[in-house]
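chain below, 258 aa
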Amino acid sequence: MTSEFSARFTGKAAIVTGSSRGIGYAIAERLLREGAAVTISSRKEEQINAAAEQLRASVDGARVLAVPANTGVDEQREEVVRRTVEEFGSLDVLVNNTGINPTYGALADADLNAVRKIFDVNVVAALGYVQLALKAWMASHGGSIINIASVAGLRSSGVIAAYGASKAALIRLTEELAWQLGPSVRVNAVAPAVVKTKFAEALYTGGEEQLKNSYPMKRLGEPEDVAGLVAFLASDEAAWITGETVRVDGGLLATGSL
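prediction:
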């Protein structure tokens, strides 16, 4: 493994959903560099297989399993979990990273079918993965679950209102699960602000300079900023941390705005 990282996850296996690019890819790469065996998944087979090849090329000795899966489909979630345990012999870390946002603007005018889809993928499917992980491994052996939320789940945004409401629900889900699953399973969430990914392009394209100057750190986030925090929370170094939602937002919410 690359020397600049520790080996906190040697002998452990992880699932990172929505990991063909962006934040999910960066999390998978970080866990691999710290010794984990990692299953990556996303809807498109060609993209997830290409991501796996890229990870193997960038991380010496990387143990990567690519499973194409739509997070919103029960049977496909089951396939991801089943194949992970069969391939790696355990499931110690689950990162619920998949998120969708097909609608923007005021909730009063929102397409309810789009809102249902947002909540189904961002919240219900995340719980579905947790249930499967528990049955397959964590209920008997313990583990760590990280849900990728958003600062939009902590403060009203207006523009991405339905998405923010779903992330607020995910934050509450995190707290409930932490209470119910302790002490053997820890459950935490990470709440990023705008991170430079394809998913977030609509939030900064054409106005990046103005937006980044609104952050105390004077830049937007990078996927690696989130990955480092996720790796810490998933590791034994965070053994007494559960039920937390940790902001990784360049100080944005400290300014009182979103």
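The helical segments are 22-33, 45-58, 74-88, 112-141, 161-181, 201-204, 208-212, 223-234. The CA atoms of residues 44 and 68 lie 6 Å apart.
thats it, cya
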